[in-house]
Write a structure and sequence with these properties.
Strand content of chain A: under 5%
CATH class of chain B: Alpha Beta
Oligomer: heterodimer
Number of strands of chain A: 9
CATH architecture of chain B: 3-Layer(aba) Sandwich
Order of helices and strands of chain B: EEEHEHEHEHEEEEHEHHH
Strand order of the largest sheet of chain A: 1-3-2-4-5
Number of domains of chain A: 3
Strand content of chain B: 15-25%
Radius of gyration of chain B: 21 Å
Helix content of chain B: 25-40%
Number of strands of chain B: 11
Helix content of chain A: 40-55%
Strand order of the largest sheet of chain B: 9-8-7-10-6-1-4-5-11
Distance between the termini of chain A: 46 Å
CATH topology of chain B: Rossmann fold
Structural class of chain A: mainly alpha
Number of helices of chain A: 27
């Protein structure tokens, strides 16, 4: 109801959104009478007298508003042509005439409706009979005024003519609807009703088939059009081609060969071609290589910007994942992804590093003296499990996020530990890249290790791990992101901050997709940053649920996309535009992408990036004086980290 | 076309940290993960592509122990029709010639028209393909980076020549080819594929099954013996350019030009 009747997502685009809300409201109001009219039962809505009259007035205005909206929308389409409606040549031709035609049809309906009412009113007025009241300055009122001198016969003809025109247009529109975007009026009701509401999850390989019986499923994922679920096919028919998804898609903005809008439109065109009304349907063809390209399918970072925007709640991530499952099943995987996938299978991390070295980040000399991280091997137990995940365990640069997180946990006296070599990659991207069975193997090993650890809660500093443990795993102790832990401790007064050293710096917080959009954690990281005295923070143009993905995490680091400009570079420029010179993020992959992007954008020295955990670690007032000293090597190292070469990265 | 691909299981160089054992005569094998030798994987993919064009079957064979069955299954998951494991205590310690002798015995038992090997094993010496061809008295082409099936039991193969050039050859079937990496893009083998072939029985052959005289193979017949294994001393590292960005660019262009990198 919120998204359909409430039109919740429409005002995110002001002009088009308001027009849509008005037209939608007008349609709802008019529909009741229109049904009465076309059936020829009565030209009045059967309502008690006063209410009926009130309805008539509202109806007159509704007709007028819808008509004005049509005119305005047509002008917008013809004269202003918003960029997001444009159809790049690679995606085929646009249908601008179709849109205008639809607007015209609706405008005719409104005109005919008004003339019908106006001619009747004028007729009665000329005969000095009591007439129904026409709302001041509404379309029928204007027509009545214009028709006040017309002859009675012509008024009668006009009355009938308008009725006829209305009916013909209406029924034509009714029959014509399934072939264009106007079909969304009907289908959206079902699309929205059946929409997936659990964020951050991925649909199972096949609905209704439990994990244990997956071996009996012959074909995984979507290979041909018919492999899509009925809901996904309904999505294709429902799409109103408004372009909001692609307008927000970072892959599209970076010039990758992916546009969520055309993922849908191409599928719909395919459906019309292959399942025609008056001929036999054609044999199913493989989608990838025909209407989609491989690069298109691998280009998505599953950031969720498209789904966040879609007013009709069309699902994209599940379709992309299903297409990838199909490609994986056919062995059609880019060479750059095969090695990390193989390494995940044999070593439990995409880098092919030794399992026994997974906890080496915690053994750095300076660090271990200050903060001894427990290894939960079954004999040693702790209340809290810090789930580190692969990149934080193995990447030289990112290990510092792990150490910062551990120091914070230790300073708030949390009794915590890590799994060490027992921990495997969370498999978050493994699943989203379509390798479901490998994901399940990793998941099962982790669940077993977590349960054996006896921990009662789980903390992670990696939003991808957070999302995996929270959404993809089942029956685990409660999981939270370190930013939630920190925010709570700040509120409780257990974490206090010292003033920032350089108060001229301006900070901007970049929302990681899997912390923000997929898990709705927007305020905790901000409240932590704002609790640091002397720190000034600005918001980027695209923030919170409209945050712009910096390039994707996990296996995406290994994928070599075809693009004009890196997403991260675009993101760094947005931060610069907002007047920031420090980007704070809360995800190891964002750190990798943004740090690289700063170099690519040539903004080294002008822009820097720091993880929330690192920032907190740096600004925290410690319990013991020894660790407060700003002269400590760990502190100084913070500033030097950006200069260190990284050893573990994709590619 | 009946194709036989000879494959080998090796420590995966991208996923291991290779270290010498304390005796210094081998690498530390405790924590190693193994996979199919990369060039052999390309050979299997090439065989599968040929079969998809002209029909036939692909058999993958390896000489080794029980553990090596893993790579046969992986290649069967890729699409290979059969896997054959050749294992016998008598084969232990075989040198390249020994392995070629064993494989030649298998070829003689079957009706294979095309025998593919990888260009070399990552821990091997690139010998088996050539020796196998000689023992079978088949024509041989090495470093093959494309294969086209011609009419009249002939193949057109290109070979990679130093400097990136290609040499085109016609070769008669049956023949042995050693396959260069990069000839194709091997398909991905997922967990699902591996599970689906997990229970298919893999035939195992020993010296008796192949009619081999044990004195011709194994350690007793090996004429090449490994006597040492060492990591070479680290040489001079990379040259670091020091100077302004412009100076560095100029110097870099100069260096690359001097080495023939720029024309």
């Amino acid at each position: 109801m919120k998204f359909w009747l409430g039109q919740w997502k429409h005002p995110r685009y002001k002009t088009a959104g308001i027009i849509h809300v008005l037209v939608f409201a007008g349609f709802i109001l008019l529909a009741s009478r229109a049904f009465g009219l076309i059936l020829g039962i009565s030209d009045h809505l059967v309502l008690p007298d006063r209410l009926g009259r009130a309805y008539d007035i509202v109806r007159d205005y509704a007709t007028t508003v819808v008509f004005c909206c049509m005119v305005f929308a047509a002008i917008r389409r013809i004269v202003f042509r918003p960029a997001r409606y444009a159809v790049p040549r690679k995606f085929g031709k646009g249908h601008p005439a179709d849109a205008i035609f639809l607007l015209a049809l609706i405008a005719i309906l409104m005109l005919a409706d008004s003339l019908y009412a106006a001619s009747k009113a004028a007729f009665l007025a000329q005969q000095n009979q009591p007439t129904e009241f026409l709302a001041l300055l509404s379309l029928p009122w204007v027509f009545k005024y214009l028709l006040s001198t017309a002859s009675l016969t012509s008024l009668q003809d006009l009355h009938l003519g308008a009725y006829f025109a209305h009916d013909v247009t209406f029924f034509f529109l009714l029959c014509y609807r399934p072939f264009g975007i106007q079909f969304h009026v009907e289908t959206s009701l079902f699309t929205v009703f059946f929409a997936k509401l659990d964020r951050g999850t991925v649909k199972p390989v096949r609905w209704g088939v439990p994990d244990t019986q997956l071996d009996q499923v012959n074909s995984f994922g979507v290979k041909t059009f018919e492999d899509f679920t009925w809901k996904h096919i309904l999505d294709f028919y429902s799409c109103a081609d408004c372009g909001r998804c692609s307008d927000n898609c970072p892959a599209n903005a970076a010039g990758r060969p992916l546009s969520p809008r055309f993922l849908t439109i191409k599928a719909r065109d395919y459906a019309f071609q292959h399942f025609p009304v008056f001929a036999k349907s054609h044999n199913s063809q493989s989608l990838v290589g025909n209407i989609y390209s491989e690069d298109e399918v691998w280009s998505c970072t599953t950031c969720g910007a498209c789904e966040e925007e879609c007013p009709l709640l069309v699902e994209y991530i599940d379709k992309i994942v299903d297409l990838r499952r199909g490609l994986i099943d056919q062995g059609n995987v880019p060479q750059s992804l095969q090695k990390p996938l193989k390494a995940l299978e044999s070593r439990g991390n995409p880098y092919g590093k030794m399992e026994k070295k997974r906890a080496d980040w915690a053994k750095a000399k300076d660090f271990q003296q200050l903060c001894d991280v427990k290894l939960l091997d079954g004999k040693v137990t702790a209340d809290t499990l810090y789930f580190v995940d692969s990149i934080t365990s193995y990447d030289d640069r990112i290990q510092s996020i792990g150490r910062a997180t551990a120091r914070i946990l230790s300073d708030i006296d949390d009794n915590f530990g890590i799994l060490g070599s027992q921990e495997k990659d969370s498999g978050h991207e493994v699943r989203r890249f379509g390798e479901e069975l490998l994901f399940m193997a990793l998941r099962d090993q982790n669940i077993q290790a977590i349960k054996a650890s006896g921990a009662r809660r789980i903390v992670t500093a990696d939003p991808h791990a957070l999302n995996a443990l929270k959404r993809d795993y089942k029956d685990l102790p409660p999981v939270e992101h370190i930013s939630q832990t920190i925010a709570r401790e700040v509120r409780r007064g257990n974490i206090r901050f010292s003033k920032v050293e350089d108060s001229s710096k301006v900070y901007a917080y970049h929302d990681p997709c899997y912390l923000g959009r997929h898990n709705q954690i927007y305020d905790d990281p901000r409240s932590v940053i704002d609790a640091i005295p002397g720190l000034s923070r600005v918001e980027m143009r695209r923030c919170k649920d409209r945050s712009f993905c910096c390039g994707g995490g996990g296996l995406m680091l290994f994928y070599e996309p075809k693009e004009d400009e890196r997403m991260g570079v675009k993101r760094v420029r947005m931060a610069a535009e907002a007047g920031a010179n420090v980007i704070v993020t809360a995800c190891p992959f964002c750190m990798v992408n943004i740090e690289d992007a700063i170099k690519v954008a040539g903004l080294e020295g002008k822009m820097s990036v720091i993880d929330l955990a690192e920032l907190v670690d740096q600004q925290m007032v410690r319990h013991e004086p020894a660790t407060v000293s700003s002269q400590h090597p760990q502190r100084i190292a913070h500033r030097e980290w950006t200069l260190e070469p990284t050893t573990v990265r994709g590619g | 076309m009946e194709i036989l691909v000879c494959a080998r299981r090796v420590p995966d160089t991208s996923e291991n940290e290779i270290q010498l054992n304390s005796a210094g005569n081998d690498i530390e094998r405790d924590d190693l993960v193994y996979s199919i030798n990369e060039a052999d994987n390309y050979a299997v993919e090439e065989a599968l592509q040929i079969v998809s064009r002209v029909g036939g079957s692909v058999t993958v064979v390896t000489v080794g122990g029980e553990d090596d069955e893993e790579i046969l299954r992986r290649e069967m998951a890729m699409g290979a029709t059969h896997g054959v494991l050749i294992t016998d205590d008598a084969f232990l310690g075989s040198d390249g010639r020994g392995i070629a002798t064993i494989l030649a015995a298998l070829v003689k038992k079957g009706t294979y028209e095309l025998i593919l090997t990888g260009i070399q094993a990552e821990d091997g010496g690139a010998q088996v393909g050539g020796m196998l061809a000689a023992m079978l008295d088949y024509p041989f082409a090495s470093l093959v980076n494309s294969i086209e099936v011609l009419e009249g039991r002939k193949l057109k193969v290109s070979r990679e020549i130093e400097g990136g050039n290609k040499e085109m050859n016609e070769i008669e079937l049956p023949c042995v080819l050693s396959i260069q990496t990069g000839i194709n893009e091997p398909r991905y083998v997922g967990m699902k594929g591996i599970r689906q072939v997990a229970s298919i029985p893999i035939p195992t052959f020993g010296a008796n099954d192949l009619g081999l005289d044990p004195s011709l193979v194994g350690a007793v017949a090996a004429r090449v013996k490994r006597i040492d294994y060492f990591v070479p001393a680290v040489g001079k590292g990379a040259e670091m350019l020091e100077g302004s960005r412009e100076e560095n660019i100029e110097k870099l262009v100069e260096l690359v030009t001097a080495k023939g990198g720029l024309n």
